[in-house]
Each structure stands twice: as C-alpha cells, then as structure tokens.
Design a protein that fits this description.
Strand content: 5-15%
Mean pLDDT: 96
Number of strands: 8
Shape: elongated
CATH superfamily of the largest domain: Fumarase/aspartase (Central domain)
Number of domains: 3
CATH architecture of the largest domain: Up-down Bundle
CATH topology of the largest domain: Fumarase C, Chain A, domain 2
Structural class: mainly alpha
Largest sheet: 2 strands, antiparallel
CATH class of the largest domain: Mainly Alpha
Helix content: 55-70%
Oligomer: single chain
Order of helices and strands: EEHHHHHHEEHEHEHHEHHEHHHHH
Radius of gyration: 30 Å
Low-confidence stretches: none
Length: 472
C-alpha cells in the first residue's frame, strides 16, 4: 500500500492512496481508536442525504456550479446504493458534536466527485470538502438533521415489527380464549383468568406502545438545518432551508419540516431524549411480556408449564434433552441494552452548554442502535416464539382446581372471613375448595357448581347472581 500526503490547518499527514476519506478523517482514526466500531449505516445515510440535498439546493440557487453539484449528487447516490461504505470509518466515540463524522462524509463525497470529474483523490479540486460539499452547513445543524432523518427512516420497520407482534399476540388471545387457568398476583395463586385474556392484554400493551412512538415522531420531524453554526443561519441564503426541506423530502421519502426555532433545536436534544424514553417504555413492557412467557412455560415438569414454547435450539451443553426459552431470553437482553442506551441518551441530552450539545455522536449511536436491535428482537419474538406457542390445557385445569383463590367466588355468600378459613384449610389438607365445601356440607353440590363456575369467574359479575338485563 502507498500513501499520499494531505494537508490541513494542523499540518501534513499521510493518507492511504486507496482511501476516499482524507486528512481530517485520518486524524480522527488516530485520535479515537475506542470501540472498534464504525458508524451505523443508517447514520451514514442520514449525513449523505444532507449533503446531497445541499448540493441540489445550491445548484438551484446558482451558488454551486451545476457540474460540481451533479458530481456530489452522483457520489452520494453511489454511497446510498451501498458503495464506498468501508470509507466511513470514524468511531462513534469521537470529538464532540460529530465534526469527524461530518468531515468523513465531506471528504468521501469530495474525493469521489473529483474522480467523476476526472480529478484525483486527495487533491480536492475542483470540489473541496468544506467549500463545496459542506457549503452553508455546520456540523451543528447537519448532525442533528442526520440523526432525525435516520430515526424517521428506521421507524417504519420498527412499527411494522411491533404490529406483527401485536397481531401474533392477539391471534393467540383468540386461540386460547377457551383455556381457563389460575391467575397469579405477587407470584401467588389468584382468581381465575383465561389464557386468551392474558395474551390479548399483551397484544394491547404492544399496541399502546405503537401509538406512543407514533405520537413522539412529530417532534423528530422538525429540522434545524439552515441554522449553521449557532442556529442563526450565518452563511446561508434566505431560501436555503426551504429548499433543503423540499429536497430532503424528495430524496428520503420522509415527511420533514422546518423547525420553528432553529436556535432552540440546536441547543436542546430534548426531542431525542423524549423519543428514546418512549422506546425505553416499550422495552420495559416487552421485557415484562418476555418474562411472563418464560414463567408460564417453566418446567416442563417442575414449573408452571401452562404453555409450551417452540424448541429452537438445544438448551444445555451438559443436560441432554433440555430446551430453554431462548427467544424470550434474547428479548430480555435486548430490552436491558435498550434501557441502558436510553440512560446514555438522557445523560448526554442534558450535557449541552449554551448554543450546542456536543454529545450528539453518542446520542446518535445509542438511539439508532436501540431502534435497530429492538426492531429485530420484536420481529424474531413474533416469528420464532409467539406464533408457535401451544397451550397445555390439562395442566391449566389441574392447577386451577388446586387453586385456593377460587374461594373468592364464595365470599359474597359466605363472607370474607369464612372463605379465608376454607382457603387455609384446603391448603393444609391438600384438598380443592370444591371438595372441601362439599365434604363440610356448607353448600349443596348444585350450589357449588353454580357458584364455582370457573368460566363465569373470568367475566364481570357476582357468582350465583343473574346478570342484569341488557339495556339494548
């Protein structure tokens, strides 16, 4: 490999001849060998979309010569088509604000544009990274714009995965509606519930999170592009922001709009923090569902075992035949990661000073990574776990009959204190409530059957009392 020598205000540095990036990116590579990671592809898309829209805007205003603009647009198209991705090399943990990420894009697009115009890498003529690719821009408005575009571009896939999971859970709710089982509160026996009611509730929980995420996107769609260095729009033309919004919508297929106050949008990362916290709320709910799935499937012989999960892989390297709830365990781990990502976003969002929050790179990485892994975990949970769950109906009946909490249905007739005595005695004597009440002659067999109607106990009403007439 051979190098070329490039120069910037700090001096000279060798850069590999094969590199489309330049000296400022090379400095970042030397300064920040932190995680071994490179920028997430969607974050690369975000910054390249900004550069392409800027070139189109400046071509329309006449500020940028048409052939230069066309070359930048063509170079951006190549990147967006998947080419040159190995040239985006700056670690997510980098200099504040994202200047390194911004310059990485500026240099790659400038060098490729010059090649398309017959020039050579590293010479930056006729297209210059700062003067042309970054024209009228600052890291301070391009990076938050790139984050917003990236979030909005990832959101449809996340919402689709959540809808698939919702539909899968609701389908199980319908399938299991006839299965009556023991409810549990405080991990102790509680009043009966239908297995279908549990799964329907899980589906509605995911559905509510979809609505929360959809509602939070209205803030993400407001851009501060055109704010340049401190939000005031220095070095931008009056029509710049309007044209940028138009071209970004055309290029991305998204629906973004000009923010009301670009200074505010530059100072505050609150929109990202709010969206991240909404994602964290979903992670908390999804984690609870995964935990419930693991509990209900525990066993198969020494646990609850009211449901059976699909066997996706052997569960032990030493215990033959063991099968674990592997998909649900993966979901747990993803949810914990997303919660941790949100904590990072929250801390970074409040770390800004005066006109800028310099922690944008870590906000971008954590928020976008959280969206990606949550999307994949949600989809896999639906496809490789939920859709193939089976109900163990005999086990549900067995545990429910032994549940002393069904005495709750007798409390309106016998009183709370007497019902509590029966529950205690049933446990001590290892009898069912039904058996004990009949043995003691407290109620006739006919009354027991009427009051201990397990299906009726899963609906509103007082056992033994007829339902009020319909008002329809």
């Amino acid at each position: 490999m051979t190098d070329r020598i490039e120069r910037d205000p700090l001096g000279e540095l060798p850069v590999a001849d094969s590199a489309l990036y330049g000296i400022q990116t090379e400095r970042a590579r030397h300064n920040f060998p932190i995680s071994g990671m490179t920028p997430l592809p969607v974050f690369v898309n975000g910054i390249v979309w900004v550069k392409q829209a800027a070139a189109l805007t400046h071509r329309e205003t006449g500020r940028l010569e048409a052939r230069f603009a066309d070359a930048i647009v063509a170079a951006a198209d190549e990147v967006l088509a998947g080419k040159h991705r190995d040239q985006f090399v700056v670690d997510p943990f980098q200099a504040g604000a994202g200047t390194s990420h911004n310059m990485n894009a500026n240099e790659v697009l400038a060098n490729r544009a010059n090649e398309l115009l017959g020039g050579r890498r590293g010479e930056y003529t006729p297209v210059h990274p700062n003067d042309h690719v970054n024209m009228a821009q600052s890291t301070n408005d391009t990076i938050p714009t790139a984050i917003r575009l990236a979030v909005l571009s990832l959101l449809p896939e996340l919402l689709y995965a959540m809808r698939v999971l919702t539909d899968s859970l609701l389908a199980k709710g319908r399938e299991f509606d006839h299965v009556i089982k023991s409810g549990r509160t405080h991990l102790q026996d509680a009043a009966p519930i239908r297995l279908g009611q549990e799964f329907t509730a899980y589906g509605h929980t995911v559905e509510r999170n979809i609505r929360r995420l959809e509602a939070s996107t209205q803030w993400i769609a407001e851009l501060n592009i055109g704010g340049s260095a401190v939000g005031t729009g220095l070095n931008t033309e009056p029509e710049y922001t309007r044209l940028m919004i138009r071209y970004l919508n055309e290029i991305t297929g998204l629906e973004v709009q000009e923010g009301r106050d670009r200074v505010q949008l530059m100072q505050s990362m609150g929109d990202f923090s709010a969206f991240s916290s909404t994602l964290r709320t979903y992670a908390g709910d999804l984690n609870k569902i995964a935990n419930d799935i693991r509990l209900l499937s525990s066993g198969p012989n020494t646990g609850i075992a009211e449901i059976s999960l699909p066997a996706v892989q052997p569960g032990s390297s030493i215990m033959p035949g063991k099968v674990n709830p592997s998909i649900a365990e993966m979901v747990n781990m993803v949810c914990y990661q997303v919660m941790g990502n949100d904590h990072t976003v929250a801390l970074a969002s409040q770390a800004g000073e005066l006109e800028l929050n310099v922690m944008m790179p870590v906000i971008a990485h954590n928020l976008l990574f959280a969206m990606q892994i949550m999307t994949n975990a949600t989809r896999i949970f639906a496809e490789r776990c939920i859709v193939d769950i089976a109900a163990n109906e005999a086990r549900c009946r067995e545990l429910l009959e032994r549940n002393p909490a069904i005495v709750t249905a007798l409390a309106p007739k016998l009183g709370y204190a007497e019902a509590a005595k029966l529950a205690k005695e049933a446990v001590e004597r290892n009898m069912t409530i039904r058996e004990l009440v009949v043995e003691k002659g407290i109620l006739s067999e006919e009354e027991v059957e009427r009051l201990l109607n397990l299906r009726a106990m899963t609906e509103p009403g007082v056992p033994g009392h007829p339902a009020p007439p319909s008002q329809d």
